[in-house]
Specification:
316 residues; alpha/beta; 2 domains; globular
Length: 316
């Protein structure tokens, strides 16, 4: 099978054997995958990654001990928990200390003709939901995770810093939940996508001091935290979504004195994201800027890394 490979910052396509299917797993054949910022950070050296990336995908189940799954179109949760430790017993499977992570930590990713996932990680794609929408399940779930972690009443002012792929999704999901969202970015054309669901596009130059009770930092840069801290009200919350491969320096006094809470936020539950996608209220098609065949992954990654680019898809 063909599989994308990252090693020493180089993206290539290799021929590999079709993976064996362990007990309790399913064999999936890729339909479409989405390149995200984490994939680009892996290429730049995040986690010292070497292997097959990819965790945003839609696939067909081609082999599974549970025959009811065979032939279904699916998406899949990316964390493979042990299901035996105390964290898993408390519902913290996404933080299991023994977990592997699809396309990130010790489990080959979805940017290949075939990959495997535990059956318990699979979610059937609702009938009629296009692949081009369903491929956003994982990042939309990550945006929905904010609502699990930070209670938001209707009308709550929220600032989202960063108008990249995840920034747009966070802003739109929070706006659909009823928050009054201001999206701070540098690209009016990208922010206009979020404006269609009630998000207020705001220029970076309008960043002020102590403006918002909740700030979502999703710039994808080490510098974004300083702006987020400056914008947050006393006893406000900063939701941290950026994953960058370089260390981030924080002036701790600027957090401690105003008693700001820092909330790390990563993956979310697909069971929250899929109904939102099925309602088709998010203008996701406007975020897709290019599609490449799997065999042209090096060009696809180069395009995705171009400044200002939104979603680039890989087709099998």
């Amino acid at each position: 099978m063909r599989a994308v490979h990252i090693a020493d910052s180089i993206v290539s396509v290799h021929d590999l054997p079709i993976p064996a299917v362990p007990e309790g797993f399913a064999l999936l054949r890729l339909r479409v995958g989405g390149i995200c910022n984490t994939d680009l950070e892996l290429q730049r050296g995040y986690y010292g990654f070497s292997g097959t990336p990819g965790h945003e995908f839609v696939a067909d189940v081609v082999e599974c001990a549970d025959a009811s799954w065979v032939g279904k179109r699916v998406v899949g949760e990316i964390n493979l928990a042990c299901n035996h430790c105390s964290w898993c017993a408390r519902g913290l499977e996404r933080h299991c200390p023994n977990r592997t992570v699809l396309g990130i930590v010790q489990h080959p990713g979805a940017f290949a003709e075939y990959c495997t996932l535990p059956i318990e990680n699979l979610h059937a794609v609702p009938e009629g939901l296009p692949d081009e929408v369903a491929v956003f399940t994982e990042p939309v779930a990550a945006a929905c995770a904010i609502l699990e972690q930070v209670p938001l009443d209707a009308g709550t002012p929220v600032a989202v810093l960063g108008d990249g792929k995840l920034g747009l999704l966070c802003a739109m999901v929070l706006a659909l939940h009823g928050a009054e969202v201001s999206l701070f970015g540098r690209h009016p054309n990208k922010m206009a996508i979020a404006e269609t669901v009630g998000v207020r596009p705001t220029a970076q130059s309008e960043i002020g001091t102590r403006q918002y009770p909740i700030v979502v930092e999703v710039t994808g840069s080490a510098a974004g935290m300083a702006d987020a801290i400056r914008m947050t009200e006393p006893r406000g919350k900063i939701v941290m979504k950026s994953t960058v491969h370089e260390p981030v320096k924080i002036d701790m006094a600027s957090v401690i004195v105003p008693e700001i809470s820092l909330v790390g936020s990563r993956c979310g539950r697909f069971s929250y994201a899929l109904p939102l996608l099925a309602a088709q209220q998010l203008p996701l098609n406007q975020m897709i800027q290019a599609e490449y065949p799997l065999t042209e992954a090096p060009a696809a990654f180069a395009h995705a890394a171009t400044k200002g680019t939104l979603k680039v898809l890989l087709r099998n």
